[in-house]
């Protein structure tokens, strides 16, 4: 099983939140302050607060319909919060577009794989590099020196990322032809190509067999240690969550019902009740 990085004990940050000890002298990479969103008369998420250390691997868990993916949509400004605010590296994301939030350092994957299936594997990665290519439409049409240089750099960077995940030998294959587990890895690679500070993984182990899940666990830790970023994952595989997450936030009916370390969460009676239901008294 993958080992957590040293300094993973949670310690109190001045705001009262808990982050890994190794991140205590660094500004939290992500802070959500009492965010909520209403759809008509329905409150989907209410009073959600979360602080993520600069290199933390955190879990966001809860029963189906708890509001987890809605939180991801709020963090990436797919939805604008009805109330509260979100800070990325100390900067407020209020009113920003999803593209601007991506430029600020948040990248994500989705429950359902969203690759460009007809494009090659390497071209899918290049799509993720758009944040760092400054050439405009005119230079691409006339194939200026600057454009050719940027294209060469994008090719090299994409191959480097693919090699990191042992997919470089399939760079010219169509993305849709990859096995399921490889498609999952490619989606993560494309997100990493945006050079994020925080990587949001929405059910990354969905549909994976035990071998692929074990490999995913190793890859998540490898990503954090190599790219020095924070990772938040929504996941139903509790072996994965308990095996690699340092801090865990549990949701139910749009609200946070518990926060803590894996040991605290798995022994929390409120969490157990949310997942298993309340025992009837005899």
Descriptive report:
By secondary structure, the protein is of the alpha/beta class. It has 2 domains: 1-105 and 196-282, 3-Layer(aba) Sandwich (Rossmann fold), CATH 3.40.50.300; 116-194, no CATH class. The protein has helices at 68-75, 98-104, 121-128, 137-142, 145-164, 180-192, 210-227, 238-244, 262-266, 269-276, and strands at residues 10-12, 18-20, 30-39, 42-52, 57-61, 83-88, 91-92, 106-108, 198-202, 230-234, 247-252, 255-260. Helix 3 (121-128) packs across helix 5 and helix 3 (121-128) packs parallel to helix 6 (180-192). It is globular.
Main sheet makeup: 6 strands, mixed
State Rg.
Answer: 20 Å
Query: For the record, what CATH class of the largest domain applies?
Result: Alpha Beta
- Class from helix and strand fractions: alpha/beta
User: Which regions have little confidence, pLDDT < 50, spanning 5+ residues?
Assistant: none
Mean pLDDT: 88
Q: Any idea how many domains?
A: 2
Percent of residues in helical segments? 25-40%
Arrangement of strands in the largest sheet: 8-9-10-5-11-12
Order of helices and strands: EEEEEHEEHEHHHHEHEHEEHH
Number of helices: 10
Q: Tell me the number of strands.
A: 12
Short summary:
The protein has helices at 68-75, 98-104, 121-128, 137-142, 145-164, 180-192, 210-227, 238-244, 262-266, 269-276, and strands at residues 10-12, 18-20, 30-39, 42-52, 57-61, 83-88, 91-92, 106-108, 198-202, 230-234, 247-252, 255-260. By secondary structure, the protein is an alpha/beta fold.
């Amino acid at each position: 099983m993958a080992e957590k990085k040293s300094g993973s004990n949670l310690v109190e940050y001045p705001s009262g939140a808990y982050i890994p000890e190794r991140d205590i002298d660094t500004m939290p990479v992500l802070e959500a302050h009492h965010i909520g969103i209403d759809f008509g008369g329905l409150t989907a998420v209410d009073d959600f607060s979360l602080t993520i250390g600069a290199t933390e691997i955190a879990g966001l868990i809860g029963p189906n319909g708890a509001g987890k993916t809605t939180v991801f949509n709020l963090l990436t400004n797919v939805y604008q919060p009805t109330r509260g605010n979100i800070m990325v590296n100390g900067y407020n994301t209020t009113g920003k577009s999803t593209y601007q939030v991506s430029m600020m350092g948040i990248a994500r994957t989705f429950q359902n794989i969203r690759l460009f299936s007809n494009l090659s594997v390497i071209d899918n990665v290049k799509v993720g590099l758009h944040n760092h290519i400054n050439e405009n439409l005119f230079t691409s049409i006339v194939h200026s020196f600057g454009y050719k240089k940027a294209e060469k750099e994008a090719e090299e960077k994409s191959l480097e990322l693919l090699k990191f995940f042992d997919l470089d030998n399939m760079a010219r294959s169509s993305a849709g032809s990859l096995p399921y587990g490889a498609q999952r890895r490619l989606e993560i690679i494309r997100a990493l190509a945006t050079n994020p500070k925080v990587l949001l993984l929405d059910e990354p182990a969905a549909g994976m067999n035990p071998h692929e899940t074990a490999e995913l666990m190793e890859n998540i830790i490898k990503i954090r240690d190599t790219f020095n970023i924070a990772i938040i994952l929504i996941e139903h595989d509790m072996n994965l969550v308990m095996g690699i997450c340092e801090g865990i936030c549990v949701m139910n009916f749009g609200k946070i019902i518990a926060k803590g370390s894996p040991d605290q969460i798995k022994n929390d009676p409120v969490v157990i009740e949310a997942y298993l239901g309340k025992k009837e008294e005899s």
